[in-house]
Structure formats: C-alpha cells, structure tokens
C-alpha cells in the first residue's frame, strides 16, 4: 500500500526498492490479474500490468523531489539542490518506460510503425542503463572537464569535454571484473523487460508468444537479481560515507539520522575529519 500511496506519504528506501522489484514483475502481475479473473488475456492487460509499477515509481520520485527540495531550502546547499533535482531525472526514466510500453502496444495494434516503438524502447533502455551505472550502482562517474587557463591541451578539452571515472566509490567486492560483468549483463538485458511486458513483436515463428514471455521474464529476473546486489551495496556505501549507517560512529557530527535525505554539511565533515 505504501508503494501506491507515494504522492501522499513519504518514501523510504524500502518503499522504492520494493517498487523497483515490481517493475521487473510485469509477467507475474499480468498472470495474476488474468488468473483471478480481473481481466482477460490481451495485449492491453499485459501493457497496463507492466506500466503500473513504473507509474507508482514515477510518483515516488515526485514525492522524493518534494521532500528533498524542502531539505535543500532549509540547508541552502548546492549538493542538496542537486539531490532534489536528481529525483526528477530519475522520474523521467520511468516516464519514458511508460511511453515505450504505450508505443509498443500501439505498434502491435498497427497504429504506429514498429521502428518507432523499437527506437523509443532502445532510448528508454539506454536511459535506464546510464542511471544504473552512474546513480543506482555508482560504478561510473561522468563529469564535465574544465580546461585550465592557458592549458596546452585546450583543443583536446573542447573535443572531449567529459571525464569518465570508474568506481568513484569504495566497493565491497574486491574483484573489479565482477562490476564490469554486471554492467555488461545489465546492458544486454535492459531491453528484455519491455519485450516481456508487450510480447506481440514480429519475431518470426521460432517461438510461441508464451515461450517468449517465459524466457524474457526469466532473463529479467536474472538481471534484477544482479541489480539488487549492487544497489544494496551502493546504498550501504553511501550510508557509511555519510555516517548514516546504523552502528557507525559519527565522531560528534550532528546528523539527522532519521532524515531519509540527510547529507553531511561542511561543518559535519570537518568534525568527522578532526575526529579521525
């Protein structure tokens, strides 16, 4: 119920983590709706079942933006303002996912061409993949590169204005190749959930629609399982880095441990450094 009442109630890590799980359960949700007699087997039923978790997750992002904006106004910091805006960017990911489901359904009904639906689906998958790597997992950092005044490589700075950094955080897994393998798996399977949500795509007669749905659903569960491990690991890393983890000594820094959007201020960081 807390997942569906996101615009009204505040959103905790447990709430949006559970909602993320539901976005991978489009096949299970549609099968449950059909089995209980709430709807008949159809492309619309499966599309709606696939879009509803993204709709709930979208409103969770809106609520988190509202709460984080209040914190940003109280603290008046650049970091907290960016933290609030990032929730809207995350909400755009779920909005594009809903649009991808809708266009795929319309393409299945021959209202829109399949190339358009496929293009939007790929863009939605790339959007989600980039967010996974940079925010949910934080194994990739993308920053703008400002050239120093009078620098010798000014031309190169204009040609390559972005700077990429791998693993900008402390990881719990020592073998770095495992992060790379997880990123590769996520990249290959990021489009699978959409094919499971709206399976009526022209793929020939090699597999029946039921077989395709079962295969795609199993692959999405595999991808989500890997995603869960790195998402929880990143959350623990962020909590420990901000002294929000339970049982971590804060060295006298005054942090609001009950605040889901707590971020260390400059004074808190100074106190922590002096304590170390």
Q: Any overview of this molecule?
A:
This protein is mainly alpha-helical and 276 residues long. The chain is built from 10 helices and 2 strands. The protein has helices at residues 13-23, 26-35, 43-75, 78-108, 114-136, 154-159, 176-189, 192-197, 209-241, 266-275, and strands at residues 140-144, 162-166. The chain has a two-stranded antiparallel ribbon. Helix 1 runs antiparallel to helix 3 (43-75), helix 3 packs antiparallel against helix 4 (78-108) and helix 4 packs antiparallel against helix 5 (114-136). The model is unreliable at 245-276 (pLDDT under 50).
Task: Provide a concise account of the structure shown.
The chain is mainly α and 276 residues long. It is built from 10 helices and 2 strands.
What general form does the structure show?
globular
Please tally the helical runs, counting DSSP H or I stretches of 4 or more residues: 10
Helix content range: 55-70%
By helix and strand content, what is the structural category?
mainly alpha
The largest β sheet comes out as:
2 strands, antiparallel
Structure summary, number of beta strands: 2
N-to-C series of helices and strands: HHHHHEHEHHHH
Low-pLDDT residue intervals, each spanning 5 or more residues: 245-276
C-alpha termini separation: 43 Å
Strand content: under 5%
Mean pLDDT: 78
Rg value:
21 Å
Q: What would you call the quaternary organization?
A: single chain
């Amino acid at each position: 119920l807390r997942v569906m009442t996101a615009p009204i109630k505040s959103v905790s890590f447990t709430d949006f983590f559970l909602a993320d799980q539901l976005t991978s359960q489009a096949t299970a949700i549609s099968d449950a709706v059909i089995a209980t007699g709430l709807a008949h087997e159809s492309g619309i039923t499966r599309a709606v079942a696939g879009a509803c978790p993204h709709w709930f997750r979208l409103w969770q992002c809106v609520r988190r933006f509202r709460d984080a904006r209040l914190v940003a106004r109280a603290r008046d910091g650049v970091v907290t303002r960016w933290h609030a805006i990032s929730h809207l960017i995350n909400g755009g990911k779920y909005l594009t996912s809903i649009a991808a489901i809708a266009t795929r359904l319309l393409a299945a009904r021959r209202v829109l061409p399949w190339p358009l639906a496929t293009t939007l689906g790929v863009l939605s998958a790339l959007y989600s993949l980039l967010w996974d790597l940079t925010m949910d997992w934080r194994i990739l950092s993308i920053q703008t590169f400002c050239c120093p005044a009078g620098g010798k490589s000014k031309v190169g700075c204009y040609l390559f204005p972005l700077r990429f950094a791998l693993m900008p955080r402390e990881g719990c897994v020592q073998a770095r190749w495992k992060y790379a393998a997880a990123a590769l798996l996520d990249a290959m399977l990021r489009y699978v959930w959409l094919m499971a949500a709206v399976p009526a795509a022209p793929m020939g007669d090699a597999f029946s629609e039921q077989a395709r749905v079962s295969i795609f659903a199993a692959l999405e569960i595999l991808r989500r399982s890997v995603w869960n491990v790195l998402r929880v690991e990143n959350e623990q890393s962020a909590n420990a880095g901000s002294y929000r983890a339970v049982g971590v000594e804060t060295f006298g820094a005054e942090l609001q441990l009950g605040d889901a959007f707590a971020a260390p201020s400059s004074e808190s960081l100074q106190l922590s450094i002096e304590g170390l």
